[in-house]
Specification:
This protein has helices spanning about 35-50, 50-75, 90, 105, 120-125, 130-135, 155-170, 170-180, 185-190, 195-200, 205-220, 240-250, 275-310, 310-330, 345-390. The chain is mainly α. Among the domains are: about 35-170, no CATH class; about 185-325, no CATH class. The longest helix is centred in the last third of the chain and has 48 residues, at about 345-390. One of its GO terms (molecular function) is ribosome binding.
Length: about 400
């Protein structure tokens, strides 16, 4: 039998005083059925009638689906450029009831494509499907009886978000409404160039800064054009015809952008027709207001671009030179011989001399007229004197 070794108490050791605390009496507490174990119990009860055999069969089916999915990529199947995007905690915690506030492209893993995603890419974007997540991202139970049970309590909620994203983005009309107020688009528009920022600082952009600032803005806005193709801003070497065509197109821009997605929802279960009519009237008024503000915003943006465009100054200079050349051509001799252009001082000097000559001629003519009048007057006097002498 093994002996127990104990240390010898020191000589100065004194036994502590006994505690005067008393043990509290029993109390009643209400236990709430929550937590991963309870969720797993509910799933086993509701989905598999508390049958572990049925659950094991379901887990095996999920495993086979996941294996087929992984093999499809291993065999080189084309995913149409959809790729893989990480799932953030905020994304997995989305509330299905707040479906109008969701970023549907992020839910489907299409943040890098967004409005450019094709219908086929939207259909293939199913990497978030619960069938693919059960044995990968979801935590598993450590109990041997609950082995393979998914303890991710938000799977069902996130699946509803995925279903809603598919419903909206696969419907052309709903997708147009959603793309009109896309989260990323609204964020970019808040950072668009503002006329006030340029007027206050009197900032002048270089050619590179101008095109770097405004080119992506018009590329984003071009998606809403009813007319195609949409002219681009171009570069510093763009021709006069291209620049004039660009501004003519954007000053007459015809947009299909709408704002139905921001409509206020009619209360479900409400039987009051007046409330429904009021809500519909209010929504219609808000859509018209937002549309008007969007048109004014775009017009202001085009005005700002035109005022800062370095090509406009170049075009005006070219037009001025063309007018001067045309004027010079008209003043050239009929023979066609080229004559050097006179300076402004020379033209003024010649004009002054010509005026002096004209004034001198006018003065001489005036003097000659006065002399002729005097001579005529003298002749009349002489004639009268002769008549009077003959009579006498």
């Amino acid at each position: 039998m093994a002996s127990i070794q104990t240390s010898i108490l020191p000589k100065g050791y004194t036994r502590p005083d006994p505690s005067k605390a008393s043990i509290a009496g029993p109390s009643t507490r209400r236990l709430l059925p929550v937590g991963p174990a309870f969720i797993s119990h509910l799933r086993l009860t509701l989905k598999h009638q508390h049958s572990f055999e049925a659950h094991d069969a379901h887990a095996e089916k999920q495993r086979q689906k996941l294996e087929e999915f992984q093999n499809s990529f291993a065999n080189g199947d084309d995913d149409l450029g959809v790729g893989e995007e990480p799932e953030t905690e905020e994304l997995l915690a989305l509330d299905p009831k707040e479906w109008k506030k969701h970023d549907y492209y992020a839910v489907l893993g299409l943040s890098h494509l967004r409005y450019k995603a094709t219908p086929d890419q939207i259909k293939i974007a199913r990497k978030h499907h619960p069938d693919k997540k059960v044995t990968t991202t979801a935590p598993q139970s450590t109990s041997s009886l609950l082995a393979g049970v998914n303890l991710n309590t938000n799977d069902d909620a996130f699946f509803k978000c995925i279903a809603k994203a598919h419903e909206v983005l696969t419907n052309s009309e709903k997708r147009r409404q959603y793309d009109s107020v896309d989260h990323e688009l609204m964020e970019f528009q808040e950072e668009d160039p503002n006329p006030n920022s340029f007027s206050k600082s009197k900032k002048e952009l270089s050619d590179h800064e101008f095109f770097e600032t405004f080119t992506p803005v018009f590329e984003r806005e071009a998606r809403f054009s009813k007319k195609t193709p949409v002219p681009t801003l171009g570069d510093i070497h763009a021709s006069k015809e291209h620049v004039e065509g660009f501004y003519d197109f954007w000053y007459n821009f015809d947009s299909w952008r709408s704002f139905e997605w921001l409509d206020k929802e009619i209360n479900e279960g409400s039987d009051n027709r007046d409330d429904k009519r009021y809500t519909e009237k209010k929504n219609k008024s808000e859509r018209a207001r937002r549309k008007k503000e969007d048109i004014a915003r775009l017009r202001l943006l085009v005005d700002l671009t035109l005022s800062l465009d370095p090509r406009i100054k170049r075009i005006k200079q070219q037009e001025k030179e063309a007018r001067e050349a045309k004027k010079a051509a008209k003043s050239a001799p009929p023979s066609g011989a080229a004559t050097p252009l006179k300076s402004k001082a020379q033209e003024e000097e010649e004009k002054k001399k010509q005026e002096e000559v004209e004034n001198a001629a006018k003065s001489d003519a005036k003097k000659a007229k006065a002399a002729a009048a005097n001579a005529a007057k003298k002749a009349r006097r002489a004639a009268r004197a002769a008549e009077e002498g003959s009579v006498a």
